[in-house]
Amino acid sequence: MKISNYYKQYLINLLKIPQSSNKIRTLFSPTDFNKELIYSIGKARFRIYIVLLYFDCDRSGRLILDTLYKAKKNYCNLDIVIIVDLNRAKRNRFGNSNTVTNIDWYYYIAQINSDIEIPIYGIPISNKEYLGVFHLKGFIIDNKVIYSGANINDVYLEKLNYCRYDRYRIIKNKLLADALVYYIKQYLLTAKAINRLNNINDKKVIINSNIYTLRKTLKTANYHYLGTINYNKLSIIPLVGLGRHNLLNKTIYHLIYSAQKKIILCTPYFNIPNILFNSIVDALNLGIVVEIIVSDKIASDFYAHKKNDNFHIVNIIPYLYEINLRKIMIKLQNYINHGYLIIKIWKNQYNSFHMKGIWIDNEWCMLTSNNFNIRSWQLDLENALLIYDPQQFLIKENNAELSNINNYTKLIKHYNDIQTIADYPIKIRNLINRIKKINLDKIIKFLI
Fold first, then answer.
1. Up-side HSE of residue 197: CA atoms within 13 Å toward CB?
2. 3 state DSSP class of 189
3. What domains sit in the chain, N to C, each tagged with a CATH number?
């Protein structure tokens, strides 16, 4: 088809980093991810760069940070840098009554390890967390990249009776690792808005103009690396973006339109921006099968499992996502009836779901921090690794990953199989109705 060939040519022309198929592997559980992190940190010899939304003070966080300090103590020249979102680091998880924040913990650990230097930085993408967060993901350890949407805490590393599932790829590639580190050094560590969180002497007042300058810079900043255009073998394209018109968003758009047979899209938060929704509809009209895997509301990290008085406003978010999904299914039910649109809901007991990505025609596979929702598309700093595999060296690996995800999915064949507002708990129902009455739901939709 001419339309798909035009968009595919855009992807072909992207600068690619060659990748050996025997130096990329997939992990399938938070436990394996945890073990890989600890093992890789212990083996590191010259650099460890960790970028993520948050690094929590709990059993898992303390173990990982302790492992980092031990690694630095054993190899004093080891370059270790941790970067998290500044605004998120200032608070605890919703519902956590602990008054000690992650910043307090970072400083305390630095004080008791005063002879070992491991800087922890906070990046403010905006002056308010709800207006945009630092959502880059990745662990660069020597020449290895461990890419996952996971953050560091007990839920992501399976240290509780429940966990949060994500995607995990281990990629050995010096050029890729260098590209990710160069971006960190070039655009993040040099920013005036950056704040050292574990050295009280380096703490400074955050000036809004510095945040504005950083945000403006990051809207045009991309990864720089040695690569090859028109490379027709297994390769990787690192992508990063902030704001509506960034390279990552543009590439996602072209990926959807490049499909010829099947698109698989995986997201925990169903709040698809119009441009992405329209591209999916166009694909359906061309006879392309679109499969969407999304979290059940019970598998959301915002869902309140305990029916007690500790209700927080964020507990309505999973219900708002479900309302969005039902509305979309009503519009597209005809495609579902004819087998072109496949909707799957992921649920596994009390575990939560944080997997996101795109698979196109067994040829393209995107690992990303992007939730394919409105705020990821416009407000947050996101990144991705786009794997190009024209010879399908990784087809077994990709199928195994999808099979692992699908172990806990349920096929939804009709919008009536999804609850309506009338089915929700009365506290949730009343709150949603009040929000809708004053049109606040339109603002909330933009922010979630």
1. 26
2. coil
3. 21-218 (3.30.870.10), 235-447 (3.30.870.10)
HSE value, Cβ hemisphere, 13 Å, CA-based, for 210: 14
User: Among all residues, which ones are annotated catalytic?
Assistant: 135, 166, 354, 382
CB 294 within 8 A of CB 344: yes
**351 DSSP assignment:** B
What is the CA 152 to chain-centroid distance, rounded?
A: 13
Residue 242: Cβ within 10 Å count = 27
Does this model's pTM top 0.85?
yes
* 122 in Cβ contact with 84 (< 8 Å): yes
Confidence band for 302, pLDDT divided at 50, 70 and 90: confident
Residue 68: the pLDDT is: 98
Check residue 1 and give its pLDDT: 47
220, amino acid identity: T
Taking residues 215-235, what's their average pLDDT? 93
* Separation CA 246–CA 418 (nearest Å): 34
Looking only at the bridges linking them, the beta strands covering 289-295 and 262-267 are parallel
pLDDT of residue 203: 62
Beta strands in 116-194 (DSSP E): 120-123, 138-141, 144-148, 164-165, 168-172
Instruction: State residue 155 phi and psi, 5-degree precision.
Output: -70, -45
Return phi, psi of residue 57, to 5°: -85, 85
Q: Which two tokens stand for residue 380?
A: 């947050």
The candidate with the shortest Cα–Cα distance to 377, out of 199, 194, 265, 252, is 252
Torsions phi, psi for 205 (to 5 deg) = -70, 130
DSSP 34-100: HHHHHHHHHH-SSEEEEE-S-B-SSHHHHHHHHHHHHHHHH-TT-EEEEEEEHHHHTSPPTT-----
Q: pLDDT band for position 437 (50/70/90)?
A: confident
Strand partners, 264: 291, 359
Q: 128: which 2 tokens?
A: 């308010």
Count of other CB atoms within 10 angstroms of residue 408: 18
pLDDT in tens, 133-168: 999 999 999 999 999 999 999 999 988 888 999 999
Paired strand residues for 82? 50, 120
